[in-house]
Amino acid sequence: MSALLEVSQLSSYHGQLPAVREVSFSLQAGQVVALIGANGAGKSTLLRTVAGLHAPSAGSIRLDGRDITHLGPEKRAALGVVLVPEGRRLFASLNVEENLLTGCYRARPGGWDMDRVIELFPWIRERRRQPASQLSGGEQQAVAIARALLANPRVLLLDEPSLGLSPAALRRIYAVFPELVRSGLGIVLVEQDVRRALQVADRLQCLLEGRQTLEGAPEDLQVEQIEAAYFGIAYRGDGVGA
Amino acid sequence: MIYLNAIVQGLFLGGLFALFASGLSLMFGVMEVINLAHGDIAVAAVYLAVSAIGVTHIPAIWVFVIVVPIFVVGGYFGQRMFLQRSMGSGPITTLLVTFGLSIVLENVLLEVYSANSQSLNVGSLVSGSVQITNQIFLPYLSMIFLGVAVAALALVHLFLTRTRTGRMVRAVADDREAAQMVGADYRHLFGVAASIAAGTVALAGLALGMYTSISPSTGPSYLLYGFAAVVIGGLGSLWGTLAGGMVLGLAATLGALVDPDFGSMLPYLVFLSVLAVRPRGLFPKRAAL
């Protein structure tokens, strides 16, 4: 069985700088791949390249075996690769409900509809007529995720969903993860909070200056090993886990 | 009573300004394009109407049925084929393209129709009016145009707020990338906005052609009024543009009470004062999240 999303040897520039260098990973349905790394490691650029907002300089991206490397972002979204961008990026002049409805614009057929999204975030029902700009950061993040879900994606790309959220809001966002995974969604998660990423991820990818420095299942990795890969210091592998 | 009449006439004129400027506002609001050919498109609509009437002998008041659809379609393809290509190279390139389009349109009209001024003859309708008191007249033509302007702006509003495509036009105006992430092709949506802009400005042009006479070089002077209406209202806000048009119309007719020349100066004085007091206009667009 081919992977849902197969990224191979992907390189991408951020302006003049090579931000992603020959990164490969694959994602199965119902799996969460977490991308961790310090600021400027190339996580967001990698995610934006997969979403089609950045053109790759080399490598390929396949969805279900189909090469989507050179498709425009809107075509990828219609095929089911949907990015929840960093900073939420709700439509400021649209109200909450209208923001959600934009998710249905080129939606694939699937299990997510307005009722199910409101079941996931029940507070939306009372506040659907409010301008999106009046929501708190956590509420905006919830609407951004709900908007992406309404497109019925197969691959959800989440760029720093915890950015600027209170711990309580953060817990509420991560509380919906099991439900998303159960629905068969593949998730690529970019997260600064490594502990949080380890809790939900099936596979971990660590990036340093655009290169992969570590890949594996969280339960197979030592904390020291992750730290070494994260900061780029030599890991003295006495007793590699499992 | 003479003031009341000036106010009524000012509102009639303002409706027309608003209809003229709404396309300018939409183009800027959705894709940040300042269309310097906007006035020339209105003038081109009048000349196209002159030809259409010559060929089909349709009554002048109904000529919009032929002209407006042509501009709606032309607006879409003009955006996709010319403006869209220039947008990748930055705002100055786009500005120059619209400036070039303005010059080309003006000269094509000169070449084909000569420099003679033209107007659309609507017969007795142009002078007919209802007299309310001995000071207040409601000209038929003005009432028709105000009705058309309000109906057209209401339709555009309904389109933008009630339809799927209209909602996406607003979304893409807020955040192009986020709109792409829900599968929206922004080029198509820009084309839709341009076709609305071209359709409304053609309609406004036809109204102007029925009121007064138009020559190929008239476009830029209307463009100035359009800009003033858009800036008074707040860049990119459609309702602001309606208010801006009304303010300009009132300033023009009230100023003319003092002196006919003052009537053409007061709108610009009002424009400058609004800029000084509220640089972002009366109804500024909501800031991005």
Q: What layout of secondary structure does this protein have?
A:
The complex is a heterodimer of chains A (242) and B (289).
Chain A: E1 5-14, E2 17-27, E3 32-36, H1 43-51, E4 56-63, E5 66-67, H2 73-79, E6 81-84, H3 96-102, H4 114-120, H5 124-127, H6 137-150, E7 155-159, H7 167-175, H8 177-182, E8 186-190, H9 194-200, E9 203-208, E10 211-216, H10 223-231
Parallel strand pairs in A: 3-8, 3-9, 6-7, 7-8
Antiparallel strand pairs in A: 1-2, 1-4, 4-5, 9-10
Chain B: H1 2-31, H2 38-56, H3 64-87, H4 91-113, E1 129-131, E2 137-139, H5 140-162, H6 164-174, H7 176-180, H8 186-211, H9 219-233, H10 238-258, H11 260-277
Antiparallel strand pairs in B: 1-2
Strand proportion of chain A: 25-35%
Oligomer state equals heterodimer
Low-confidence runs of at least 5 consecutive residues of chain A: none
- Biggest sheet of chain B: strands side by side, in what order? 1-2
Termini distance of chain A? 26 Å
The total of helices of chain B stands at 11
Helix count from the secondary structure assignment of chain A: 10
- Pair with the most extensive interface? A-B, 36 and 23 residues
**How many strands appear in the DSSP assignment of chain B?**
2
The value of Rg of chain A in angstroms is: 18 Å
Say which CATH homologous superfamily of chain A is assigned: P-loop containing nucleotide triphosphate hydrolases
Indicate the overall shape of chain B. Answer: globular
Shape of chain A: globular
Going by CATH, the architecture of chain A would be: 3-Layer(aba) Sandwich
- Head-to-tail CA distance between termini of chain B: 49 Å
